[in-house]
Write a structure and sequence with these properties.
alpha/beta; Trna Endonuclease, Chain: A, domain 1; 3 helices
Length: 232
């Protein structure tokens, strides 16, 4: 090998070494960047893990709150049911008291009407009978055996509804079957009412019932002159 060739070889080797050193430097820089990215990924993963843990804790707390809310709702529902039951009892009690008060007003006045105006001789309040598994309860029952062979059934209502008219009609139909000892008498019905809706007034008469209404704190018969009662 000549000196010139040797010089050229050394120069080539030097250039190759420089390229190698440059490549190594670039690899080191790339490795540093990769390490940096890995570190950032690890930090990001740690942050993600932290957020997942917080979400799990939050979900547990949410589940706990949902269970507590559900428990409170059930307890509120139970208390409302208890209060509603008690309210129904109180309303029912008030209804019974008002009904008893109305009957207390009606009985003396109806006794006067039945004896003085209709000629009845025997009057019974709260008449009850039970026979062959069937039963009947009348607010007032009155009858006469002498000059007037008649009987009257009085139904007392604080506030008259259509159902009240139907109720008295069924009572009239059932009476003779349960109380046959009065089958020889003409039987009439009277509705004694504190509050009468105008739309029901004519319906009372159409069913053939006498009507007694409150006037000056007293029940009086309030039927038109042309009224003809139904004999049951």
């Amino acid at each position: 090998m000549t000196d010139e060739e040797l010089k050229n070889l050394v120069a080539s080797l030097a250039i190759a070494q420089q390229e190698t050193n440059k490549g190594i430097a670039e690899l080191r820089l790339s490795q540093q960047e990769t390490d940096k990215q890995i570190s950032e990924l690890r930090l990001s993963q740690q942050e993600t893990d932290k957020q997942i843990s917080e979400l799990r804790l939050s979900q547990q707390e949410t589940d706990k709150q949902i269970k507590e809310t559900d428990r409170q709702l059930k307890e509120t529902d139970r208390q409302l049911r208890v209060q509603l039951t008690e309210l129904k009892k109180q309303i029912g009690g008030l209804g019974e008291k008002f009904g008893s008060f109305t009957e207390g007003m009606a009985f003396p006045a109806m006794t006067k009407i039945l004896t003085q105006q209709l000629g009845m001789e025997a009057i019974t309040t709260r008449f009850r009978i039970k026979k062959n598994g069937d039963s009947l309860e009348l607010d007032v029952f009155a009858y006469a055996n002498t000059t007037r062979n008649e009987a009257y059934i009085v139904e007392v209502k604080s506030h008259l509804r259509a159902e009240g008219i139907e109720q008295l009609r069924k009572i009239m139909e059932k009476f003779r079957k349960l109380v046959p000892e009065h089958n020889d008498k003409k039987l009439y019905g009277i509705l004694a009412v504190v509050d009468l809706p105008d739309k029901l007034r004519q319906e009372v008469f159409d069913n053939g019932f006498y009507l007694a209404l409150i006037h000056d704190d007293q029940f009086i018969l309030d039927t038109p002159p042309e009224f003809i009662p139904k004999c049951w």
